[in-house]
């Protein structure tokens, strides 16, 4: 199967975890696109009653266009389940996210969810995190100084640019640095260090957060549940 077909298969499968009356967090990215598409279909055709919160303007716009009831985060008291993609997942189900520059909102929604499901194709499974550049959202104020500090620490930052070579802005109008680390031997220590640096808004290591992973394989979606 092609990568997009694998993404579609897990996006569709994940909707089976959404039950009537739930408040659901919707992630961001090309895999979540298929999830939202299928959820919209079940809302329209099967009258599934749910309300959702979004992790990005992109997902919000797609979901609204499909008639899914969307709520601002401050208007919901609990999030029953969040379904999101990931850029890398290691054997302990720790992950890197932020390839779509949405990891700050994604993490806020994830940590406030009772349960988190990640939907990925097989290419996202790695032995060790770090081949994917680690996204770090930073405030524009002081970004140059922070960039230099990361360089001095050997973290090889790259300012994320769009197709026009302009800096990518997150939904909060911040920048993203991608740290070209190769491998991350101690993810918890790195996460802690990054979070201590003034100007860092959020870093893309998602540790000890996911409960279920749905992996797209040629044999069909494989579900790994109750991870934590
Ligand atoms: O973290 C993310 C966005 O910030 C995405 O979930 C991640 O980049 C995976 O995206 P895709 O499903 O397009 O491969």
From TrEMBL:
<dbReference type="GO" id="GO:0006014">
    <property type="term" value="P:D-ribose metabolic process"/>
</dbReference>
<comment type="function">
    <text>Catalyzes the reversible conversion of ribose-5-phosphate to ribulose 5-phosphate.</text>
</comment>
<comment type="pathway">
    <text>Carbohydrate degradation; pentose phosphate pathway; D-ribose 5-phosphate from D-ribulose 5-phosphate (non-oxidative stage): step 1/1.</text>
</comment>
<keyword id="KW-0413">Isomerase</keyword>
<feature type="active site" description="Proton acceptor">
    <location>
        <position position="106"/>
    </location>
</feature>
<feature type="binding site">
    <location>
        <begin position="84"/>
        <end position="87"/>
    </location>
    <ligand>
        <name>substrate</name>
    </ligand>
</feature>
<protein>
    <recommendedName>
        <fullName>Ribose-5-phosphate isomerase A</fullName>
        <ecNumber>5.3.1.6</ecNumber>
    </recommendedName>
</protein>
<feature type="binding site">
    <location>
        <begin position="97"/>
        <end position="100"/>
    </location>
    <ligand>
        <name>substrate</name>
    </ligand>
</feature>
<dbReference type="GO" id="GO:0009052">
    <property type="term" value="P:pentose-phosphate shunt, non-oxidative branch"/>
</dbReference>
<dbReference type="InterPro" id="IPR037171">
    <property type="entry name" value="NagB/RpiA_transferase-like"/>
</dbReference>
<comment type="similarity">
    <text>Belongs to the ribose 5-phosphate isomerase family.</text>
</comment>
<dbReference type="Pfam" id="PF06026">
    <property type="entry name" value="Rib_5-P_isom_A"/>
</dbReference>
<feature type="binding site">
    <location>
        <position position="124"/>
    </location>
    <ligand>
        <name>substrate</name>
    </ligand>
</feature>
<dbReference type="GO" id="GO:0005829">
    <property type="term" value="C:cytosol"/>
</dbReference>
<dbReference type="InterPro" id="IPR020672">
    <property type="entry name" value="Ribose5P_isomerase_typA_subgr"/>
</dbReference>
<comment type="subunit">
    <text>Homodimer.</text>
</comment>
<feature type="binding site">
    <location>
        <begin position="28"/>
        <end position="31"/>
    </location>
    <ligand>
        <name>substrate</name>
    </ligand>
</feature>
<dbReference type="InterPro" id="IPR004788">
    <property type="entry name" value="Ribose5P_isomerase_type_A"/>
</dbReference>
<dbReference type="GO" id="GO:0004751">
    <property type="term" value="F:ribose-5-phosphate isomerase activity"/>
</dbReference>
């Amino acid at each position: 199967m092609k990568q997009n077909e694998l993404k579609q298969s897990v996006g569709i499968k994940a909707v089976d975890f959404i039950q009537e009356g739930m408040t659901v967090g919707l992630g961001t990215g090309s895999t979540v696109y298929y999830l939202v598409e299928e959820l919209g279909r079940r809302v329209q055709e099967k009258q599934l009653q749910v309300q959702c919160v979004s992790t990005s303007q992109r997902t919000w716009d797609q979901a609204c266009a499909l008639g899914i009831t969307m709520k601002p985060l401050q208007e919901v008291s609990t999030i029953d389940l969040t379904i999101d993609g990931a850029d890398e997942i290691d054997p302990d189900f720790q992950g890197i996210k932020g390839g779509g520059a949405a990891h700050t909102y994604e993490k806020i929604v994830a940590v406030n969810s009772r349960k988190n499901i990640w939907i990925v194709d097989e290419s996202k499974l790695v032995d060790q995190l770090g081949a994917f550049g680690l996204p770090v959202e930073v405030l524009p104020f002081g970004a140059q100084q922070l960039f230099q500090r990361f360089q001095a620490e050997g973290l090889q930052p790259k300012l994320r640019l769009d197709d026009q070579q302009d800096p990518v802005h997150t939904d909060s109008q911040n920048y993203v640095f991608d740290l070209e680390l190769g491998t991350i031997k101690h993810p918890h220590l790195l996460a802690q260090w990054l979070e201590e640096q003034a100007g860092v808004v959020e870093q893309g290591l998602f540790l000890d957060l996911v409960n279920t992973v749905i992996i797209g394989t040629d044999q069909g979606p494989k579900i790994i549940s109750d991870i934590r």
